[in-house]
Design brief:
The structure is a single chain. 32% of the residues lie in helices and 30% in strands. It has 5 helices and 9 strands; from the N terminus they run E-E-H-H-H-E-E-E-H-E-H-E-E-E. The chain has helices spanning 18-26, 28-31, 42-59, 104-120, 134-142; strands at 3-4, 8-12, 63-68, 74-82, 89-95, 124-129, 146-153, 156-164, 178-179. Strands 5-4-3-2-1-9 form a 6-stranded antiparallel β-sheet, sandwiched between helices. The chain has a 3-stranded antiparallel β-sheet with strand order 6-8-7. Strand 1 (3-4) and strand 2 (8-12) form a beta hairpin. The longest helix has 18 residues, at 42-59. The protein is globular. The chain starts with a strand and ends with a strand.
Length: 180
């Protein structure tokens, strides 16, 4: 799985990305909406990376490293993967705080939806966020996902958004996913 947008390149994570993921996820602001500090210990992040790697092996897609195309710097992680609680395919993303506010989450999520629908052939993709995570919820709405319900995911009550292949409308000229 390789996805490119105008500014970003998503590539499968590797074990070599573990130190960077640990550093990103150790930041209190980054971890606030992804389980908090207790869920971001180096051991927990290593366990999560193993899950991400297993998704790529099993399904051919999963969470990816997100690098800028301009300077090839890893700025976050994102992709599509099964939700452990339900098996539904979710789009997810997270970024180092230094890269917030650049539109990378919207660009990543839109490209991942397009990849999931057009390349993988998925019929439906969901996204989940802690209800107080207004910025993530805005991203979901910007890419055309609709709020469905609240449900338990990742040991938290989450707002669940969804989009189907039939509902998905690629934004003209924006965030085009290219399978490379």
């Amino acid at each position: 799985m390789l996805i490119e947008t105008d500014r970003l390149r998503l590539r499968p994570l590797t074990n070599d990305d573990l130190p960077t993921l640990i550093r990103f996820r150790a930041d209190a602001e980054v971890s606030r909406y992804i389980g908090g500090a207790p869920m971001q210990s180096p051991e927990m992040v290593a366990r999560r990376l193993k899950f991400y790697l297993s998704c790529h092996e099993r399904y051919g897609f999963g969470m990816c490293a997100i690098n800028t195309k301009a300077d090839d710097v890893m700025v976050g992680w994102g992709g599509i993967q099964p939700l452990e609680e339900s098996g539904e395919i979710e789009v997810g993303y997270g970024f180092a705080q230094a890269y917030w506010g650049h539109g990378y989450a919207t660009e990543t999520a839109a490209a991942c939806l397009r990849y999931g629908f057009e390349q993988v052939g998925l019929a439906r993709i969901v996204a989940v966020a802690i209800p107080a995570n207004i910025n993530s919820r805005r991203v979901m709405e910007k890419i055309g996902m609709r709020f469905e319900r609240e449900a338990q995911h990742y040991d938290s009550t989450c707002a669940v958004y969804a989009s189907t292949r039939a509902e998905f409308v690629p934004r003209a000229g924006l965030y085009v996913a290219q399978a490379a």
